[in-house]
Amino acid sequence: MILEFKVLKDLYTIYRFRKDSIVPDWIYDSEFYSVTRTQDELSIICKNSDIAAGPDVKLDKLWRILKITGPLDLFLIGIIADISSRLKESKIPIFIISTFDTDYILVKDHDLDKTITVLKDSGHKIN
Description:
Shape: globular
Distance between the termini: 17 Å
CATH superfamily: VC0802-like
Oligomer: single chain
CATH architecture: 2-Layer Sandwich
Number of domains: 1
């Protein structure tokens, strides 16, 4: 299956807050953000910020996001498996976010050009 990707313009950070943390208001300044709370943690992905997140917060900055142009059918099989295996072959680490309509692939900023090349070489389109 040939997919179309859109590269989001900003740099993003992946945060890990304590499980009992409150979602900070400053994430809402981000055009894209994702919030996931589990029994173990509160994870947030949003635009890079210089705001101090606090001493108990782990973070990893300088991620880029490639959005698979959707919507995708929820019953499609193997999309992420195919993409992740191709990027694995090129030794590109990824972080995946899935929504009802589509999937988002996060790669480190220094891997973006290589990721685009791998995807294009696989027949996919990049906007």
